[in-house]
Every structure is written in C-alpha cells, then in structure tokens.
Give the backbone structure.
Amino acid sequence: MSKHLIDFIDISKSYDGSLVLDELNLYIRENEFLTLLGPSGCGKTTTLRLLGGFETPDQGRILFDGEDITNLPANERKLNTVFQKYSLFPHMSIAENIAFGLKISKKSKAYINDKIKYALKLVNLDGFENRSVDSLSGGQQQRIAIARAIVNEPKVLLLDEPLGALDLKLRQNMQYELMRLKEELGITFVYVTHDQEEALTMSDTIVVMNQGYIQQIGTPEMIYNEPENAFVADFIGHSNIIDGVMLDDRLVEILGVKMPCVDEGFGKNKPVDVVIRPEDVELVDPADGYMEGDVTSLIFKGVHYELDVMANGYEWLVHTTKHVPVGTHVGIRVTPFNIQIMHKPESSDEKAVEIDE
C-alpha cells in the first residue's frame, strides 16, 4: 500500500470550552479517496479545516509528507479546498476564476491559458472560458470550483460537502466525475459528508466520526458489513439493533429466542447489542421461523419492498423483493453469518458510540 501522506497525531480542538476533537489520530495515504463521515457536529469539518490550515489545533501535530505543517499558513500548504458554497467570483469570467490562483503564483500567460483549457476539459466544460458565473447551473458552478482547485496541482484536494447543494441526479453524476478525476490526476482526496450513500459509493476508506471520536475506519464494504458498534451500524444504512445476551460462543438470545451466530469470545451470559440488516431478515412460513409475527406496514421502494414486522414485541425492519401484504402472518429467520454481535458501551469514554434516542 502507498505511504502515509498525512498524519494527525493526538489532535484536540475545543470551541468555547466545548471539545470538538479529542486526541484524534488518523493517517491518510497517498492517492487515497478518504471520506470523513458523520452527523452534524461530529468533528469532521473541523478535521478538514485543521488540515487546510483554516484552524490551529489546541494540541497535537499534523504532518504532511513527514513535515510538521501544524502552524503553516493555508496558502503555503500543498492542498486546495472546495467548499459547498462554491465561492466563485461573480464579476470574473470562468477563465479568470480558474486562473485566480495561478496569477497570484505569477505564472506566464501561455502556461495559464494551457492550464485553463486542461482544467475545463477535465471537468467536461470545454469552451466555457468566456462565460459568466451567473449563466451556469449549480452543477456547472461546482465543476468550475473543482477546476479552479486542480489547476494549482495540489497534492491533496479537500472537499467539504461539495455536492450538498445539488439535486440527486446531479449529485450522482458528480460523484462519478470526482472518482474519475481522482484516477486521472492521481491526487489524494479528503472528502467530508454526512451522506452515507455518497461515502459508500466514492471512498477507498471511510472514517466514521461521532462526538469528536473516530468510531471506525475501513473500506466501504467493511464499514457496511462489519460495523464495530451500534452507532456505526445505525448510521450506515438501516439496521435492526436489539438488546441480546451472548449465552455462549456462537449462541445468542434475543427477544426470548436462542439463535445460532458465528461470533465467539464474548464470554457466557454477557449483555450485547445484536445488529441485523433489514435485507438479511428472511420471511418464511411461520412454522419455519425462529419467531412469528405480522406485517404491519409495506412500502414499495423500487428495488425492494420495505416492511415492518411486529414479532416478539419488536418491530423488525425488513427489505425483501417479495410482495407480502399487510396483515400476513410470517416467520422470521436469519442465517448465523448475518447476525452481528457487538459489545455494549461500558464507560463514559464510549458514550460517543451510543445511539441518541
């Protein structure tokens, strides 16, 4: 794997006495698409701003290519930031907007013109040099903001919720554009979002944050299929999260029913959180299920149906491709491999991983 390009070492940051980041440690590899994902106020934008040089940590160090950049001004760092508010200059043409950073660097006119053409081609807006900012759609303005950042040839591109203002279709198109750009340019992307789908689609690595702590770091597949705690499981996609007791290795009890699972090493009769994804709940004949219940709601979602099934006092969320009408009496089964067992938080340090009701 490629080397560390960026290292956050024991970074803490408070605003008005309230702790936003608590001894954060994180490394980012060269040419990685790393996404900071979490709810509002979790510390992800603060992390990005510290890296961009817009904020200084209260303690800790930030290394870039082995060099300490903790106190280096933003304009001396080899990175560029694209914000949700595109911050284009309305009185300048598209070409002037893109060339802004290059002019400050005193580049030659010929170099600047080449770079403008190259950047517009990269973001699929050839020939837009003389257009005004006001004549562009939101998606086009976002592309220009990205073009303006990449002409400076940063080693790292920081993106703070850059697609938040776009409609769904445009957002999806831009996700693919960003992935393509990363491959073509070979630069490192650090991306901030609270949109789980966006993170799962685009990232090589996802860092899930909550209340100033990192909850889990991993590939999209790992974060989705093997969440490390109930917060991650609930934040990434939908989950049934049920109080359980680990009776023994590979045997858990939930809702009064013993179910085989594949987890080991939790001890005997230990309280645990049990996480079961809605697509992993199988609806079977009542006689064949671990428990029986009734379908209480049915919504068609296009690819699948979303059902609520009341069974053993718990409302199960179920995704299935079968149409099962409201009122149907069903059995519920889950294969052992699809039952995720997690430790319950025990100390105040772990409070961040609990789910706010």
Remarks:
- DSSP finds eight helices and 20 strands in the chain.
- The first helix runs from residue 44 to 52.
- The CA atoms of residues 292 and 331 lie 4 Å apart.
